[in-house]
Amino acid sequence: MTDTMTAEQRHRCMSHIRSRDTKPELKVRRWLWHHGYRYRLNVKSVPGKPDIVMRPYRTAIFVNGCFWHGHGVEIENSKLNSEKAVDYGAAQIENSACCKIPQSNRAFWVAKIKRNQERDQRNYQLLQENGWQVIVVWECQLTPHQIEHTMREVELLLNSNMLARYKHAPSPFTTGEEQLPTAAENNIEYNK
Known about the structure:
The chain has 192 residues and is an alpha+beta fold. The chain contains four helices and seven strands, in the order ααββββββαβα. β2 and β3 (59-64) form a beta hairpin.
């Protein structure tokens, strides 16, 4: 299908797409806030500048749009054996159910989505190397009938990460079997 907008109209339309405070991000933030989780937004000091940063849990949450981050899209330089795969130059592209790469200006979109995917992988790896847990929530997982299940999984990951961080701390208390030193004198009888 051809584009019905002029280049100027398309440019104006695309320039109004925001990278912060998107609807999927607001859904995740609202759910976390109502369930008692507190967070910071777009912290520049954390690699990759995640959408949501939860320092006590040492967790970075990225809320990705399926189109912009190529959810389920396979972009490879080798040939794929699939009817859905479209050959474009040296790269083989396979669309997914929630992300379809436009036919017009295809080289631009393939390059952009591929760069986004590579940047995302670098950021995730850098965060994990620095001891952060990375959670990626996709836009398609936030539909009204899936959001509760998705966010419960996020909550499970947050809590398991918190438990893992404090699991191996040695207990400062003794078991009671050992004789503890006392400050008082032993076995002294007082006169009545």
